[in-house]
Amino acid sequence: MPKIVECIPNFSEARRPEVVDQIVAAVESVAEVSLLDRSSDNDHNRTVLTFAGHPQPVAEAAFRAIKAAGELINMDEQEGAHPRIGATDVVPFVPISDVTMDECIALAHELGRRVGTELQIPVFFYENAATRPERVNLAKVRKGQYEGLKAEVGTPEQRIPDEGPENVPTAGATVIGARDPLVAFNVYLTTDDVSIAQKIGKAVRHSSGGFAFVKGMGLLVDGRAQVSMNLTNFHKTPVARVVEFIRREAERYGVGIHHSELVGLIPQEALVDAAVWYIQLDQFEKDQILETRLFAAQEKADFLDEVAAGKPTPGGGSAAAYSAAMGAGLVAMVARLSIGKKKYAEVEDEMNAVLVEAEELRAKLTNAVDEDAASFTAIMQAFKLPKGTEEEKSARSAAIQDATLYASEVPLATAKGAVRVMELALEVAKVGNANAITDGASGAAMARAALTSAGYNVRINITSLKDTAQANTLLAELKAFEAKANEIDVALRQVLEERGGLTF
What we know:
Number of helices: 14
Oligomer: single chain
Helix content: 40-55%
Strand content: 5-15%
Radius of gyration: 27 Å
């Protein structure tokens, strides 16, 4: 899978669409970035943009947006209901696909240094990117808002920016960080009494003894009391649970919920979890969703079309990774068919462990599909390097060798993952649901095919390595995987004969 990071910057402007348009244009000026959402609230005087793409282009789009906002928004004149300390108030990076939280932290720090140095805007790091404990919580960083920060910046130690000057320009300051997906969620009450919303906001937020992973406050928006919230971990504090709590609290004051709204985007999983809770579905699996099945089928069709397209990539290495991922999926299926069954209660812990590892392998091997294609592209790019001088020839040769080594290591990693899938397949065949024993065996067969295919790619690529010792080491690792696979094949056939009644 490609590297994808999401960025959700908040800007202290909504009432001047022409200004927001210019900030949006700054984001869209980076071709490799996709703008996913634009949400403006006039009462809050705040606009939230959501865009995503490869990490570096996303960081560049964020920088251009911060620059545009700083030039267009004067915080001495800005006002609105939402807390803020700058024209670009907060810029979080969120890992989406094949990107770690550590990478997002590094991205936040890199952007912060650039904003502080080039734009001379003070920067504070928050959440996972925070450099000091008291800055993890955004509310603490934003305490006193723009006016308070302008009066205090640089005076107490807590107000010294992480990057940039110790004075506050009319652009204010910017808070940059890295976090998990967040749900910005507002609930409107059937009253204009803002004090009720404020009481509920206090009751629901974690800092006042409410739910963990919830930040909340009460506001008056469009003549209606609103409980405005950020749910920072919808897995541990589900949306449905928060809504029902607000409903009960509102009833204490003789009011109810009028409607709710999202600010920006919400992960599909959060909505599915809410639907499952309200409908009270038992033993629900996410692949029971029609669209999930359809999209999965389309992805398979797209991949097969790409393989058959007559292009160098995706090739045998990518197909090997795909085959191993399917094997891991079959192992996971057998584990799930064993969990919760009275007949297999004694091995439930074992099957749960298998399930976790099988799903981890499936994700890694799925990522390897694109990684193998990328390794071939790297070799081609290395061959295109200039070779007019001896220095250029030397650099080109080194780049080719580095790329070739990488192109050998990627299928070797696939081979390693395939063997582990075979081991897990043998385990579910031995003790898992006997009705699915051949599904486990099929998973092993898919993984074995992946090992063979990946092995071909390792062998062809190491022939181009000048370092023979390095090549021999890689080959020895591959042969060890193949020997292990042979042992598993023998053991699996025996299990199929004895437990499954199959004949060969």
